[in-house]
Amino acid sequence: MKKMNTRVFVILALLVAAVFSLVGCGGEKKAPPAAQQAQTVEINVSAAVSLKDALAEIQKDYQAKNPNIKLVYNLGASGALQKQIEQGAPADIFISAAPKQMNELEAKNLINKGTRKNLVENKLVVVVPKETKLNITKYEDLTQDSVQKIALGETATVPAGQYAEQVLQKLGLWDKLKERAVYAKDVRTVLAYTETGNVEAGIVYKTDAISSDKVKIAAVAPEGSHQPIVYPIALTTGTKQQEAAEAFVEYLFSADSKAIFEKHGFVMGK
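Request: output the structure for the sequence above.
Response:
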């Protein structure tokens, strides 16, 4: 009888061990890999459209290094983006092409003042179609009778248009040229008008000019003829992804991003 009991006990013990072994294996199979456990984090970036090419390249690099991050860009005129943020549009980060729009959002407590920095700087240039026969080498040459249309960004909402007006005012040309102005919703539209020959000249950022093989730079705005063209960046107070947004902003100031910005004609902010 004792031998029988011992044998039964051993069999039962083996059965219990087998059950626990199967349960353990099943549990391991159900556990997803760490990569699957990481949820995708979406960062909404409202940025001046003149940053389009540089930001697209940075996006590709950053998402390759951070596969759980999805960067969603909303590109446009800084003034239009400002209004969208004021109206509650989703935005974790705002990059303006001028301090004015950032200042106004800061006054309304819609950006996190402690995160604000100057990201990059730019220059303002006159561009003409590549095959133009016009002889334009300085801003004063825009007063020639042969220059009938000049494309500018809307001066109410587009920083490039505001800078252009400052230059023309400073040089005493505004009253002569304002009737020839063709206004565009953003600086890339100014570039498109010039590329297609719908205007004889356009005033854009240097970075826009060098992005196109259909235009050439005819003149650069004289030093001191406009406010410094700086692009401030800040987190919005409405961000729901503060940690991830801060990490991306930090990356924008990294050596990798600096090389991309400079390749596209920007100078890093001071």
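Confidence is low (pLDDT under 50) at residues 19-32.
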